[in-house]
Amino acid sequence: MLPKLIFQEISRLWKLYSKPAIKPGVVRVIYQLLIRILSPLIALAIIVDAYKRNGGWRFIKQRFGFAYTKPNKNADKVLWIHCASIGEVNAAAPLIEQLLNNTPDQALLVSTNTPTGYQYLKSRFADGVLHVYCPLDYPYAIKRLLNSFAISELWVMETEIWPNLFKIASQQRIVIKILNARLSHKTLQAPSWLKNQYRQSLSRVSRILARSDEEREHFISIGADAKKIEVLGNLKYANRPENSATANKIGQPYIVLASSHDPEEAEISKIWIALQRPELLVIAPRHSKRAKQIARQLGEQQISSVFYSQILARSKPLPTKNQVLIIDRMGQLLSLFSQAKLVIMGGSFVAKGGHNILEPASFARAIITGPDMSDFIDETSQLLTDNGLIQCQDYAQLEQQLKALIDNETARNELGKNAQESLKKQTQILPNYLQALGLQ
C-alpha cells in the first residue's frame, strides 16, 4: 500500500513540476521525504484497514515496526518469506509445506500485509510458522524487524518491490529472491522515473524465479538483469489444497460463488433465484466482513439469506429453496470447493482481475468465470486450452451456462476432470523450485 501511495504522489508532483527527464537520485529523495510528510495519512489508513479487516492492535503495531516475537528454534538462521495477501500465501504454500516437513529445525518467518493473508496462513498452517505483519517501508520499522530476527534470506512472493526494504536488507547481507515472479499491467505501464526506481531495487535482488517466459521479458523491460532471471513456472500449480480441506456443515447440494465482490452477489443471486433451482446458492465473499452488507442488498431484492455462523451455532435451520447461504467466516473456501456441484469465480464479473481458479480445479470442480481474469491470465489460458474452464462475457452468458450445466452431470464432471488434469501436467514445477532454492 505504501509504495503505491507514495509513487502516486510523486507522479502527481512530477507531472506538475518536472522536466522531460528525472534522475533516479531525485526520485529516491522525494520518496524518502514523502514517507515522512504523509505519515499522518498513512497512519490513519493503517488504523482504518485494521478496523475493516479485524487486524487488531498487533496489525497496527507491527506495520510500524513494533511488537515482534522472536522464534524459539534455531534463531541464528531465520528464513523470511513475504506474502502480500491470500494469493501470495497460496503461491508459497508448497514451499512452506516442504520446509515444515523436510527441514523442521529451520526457523520460518512468514509476513503478510493484510489480516486476511494472516488468517488464510493460519488456516493452512496451524503450527510451525511464525507470522508477522510486514512493516511499512520506513527505514526505522524495517530495521526493527531485521534486528528482531537473524534473517539469512528473504523470499518475496510474486510482485512486491519495496525500495527501503530491499536496500536495507541488502546492506545487512540478506539474500533477496523474488519467487513466482510476475509484474502487473500497471507496473509495466509505469512512467520512466518509476521504472528507474524499480531498476535500482531489483539490482539488489540475487535471483528472480519467474513464472513464465513472458514474465521474464517483463522484468527485463523494467531493468532487471537477465542473468538473474530463471523461468520455473507458476508455483500455484504445485499447490494441493485438497489435502487440507475439511467437511462443511451444509449437508445439501449447492453451487458456490467464490471470492465475490459488490455487485456480483446481488446480480448472481437474482439469476439463481429466477432459475428456481432446488440447489442452494452459497456466497463466499472475498471479504467476509461484507456479509451483513450482502444480506441487506439481497433483502432489498426480497431474497432471504442465512449466515453460515448461524448454521454452525444452530440458531438457524439450513436454508430452504429460494434462500441464499452467506459465508461470514474466513477459511471456508477449500471445504466449499470440495463438495460444490459448480463454482462461479467472483472478482471476474467486475473489474477486479478475478481470483484463484486453480484451487477449485484441484478438486475437479466445474468452474465458470466472468470476462475479467486479468490477474490470472496464464492460469485462465491454460485451463481454457485444456477445456477445463468456461469463461462468460456477461451475466446473460452466465445464466445460459448455468442452465446448460447444472443438470448435466456428465458435462460438469468432464469440465472438472479436465481442470484437474491440467494441473497434474505441471509435475516438474515444485521440484524445479526446490532444486533452485537448495531444498532438494
Task: Spell out the key features of this protein.
single chain, Rossmann fold, seven-stranded parallel β-sheet, 47% helix
Strand content: 5-15%
User: What is the total tally of β strands?
Assistant: 14
Distance between the termini: 35 Å
Q: What is the helix content? A: 40-55%
Whole-angstrom Rg: 23 Å
CATH top level label of the largest domain: Alpha Beta
Q: Given the helix and strand composition, which structural class is it?
A: alpha/beta
- Tell me the CATH superfamily of the largest domain: 3-Deoxy-D-manno-octulosonic-acid transferase, N-terminal domain
Strand order of the largest sheet: 3-2-1-4-5-6-7
Count of structural domains: 2
Gross morphology: globular
CATH architecture field of the largest domain: 3-Layer(aba) Sandwich
Return the average pLDDT rounded to an integer. 89
Q: Quaternary arrangement of the chains shown?
A: single chain
Structure description:
This protein is 47% helix and 15% strand. The strands form two sheets. A seven-stranded parallel beta sheet has the order 3-2-1-4-5-6-7, sandwiched between helices. The radius of gyration is 23 Å and the shape is globular. With 440 residues, the protein is of the alpha/beta class. About 1% of the residues have low confidence. The chain has two domains: 197 residues, 3-Layer(aba) Sandwich (Rossmann fold), CATH 3.40.50; 183 residues, 3-Layer(aba) Sandwich (Rossmann fold), CATH 3.40.50. Helix 12 links the parallel strand 8 and strand 9. Helix 3 runs antiparallel to helix 4.
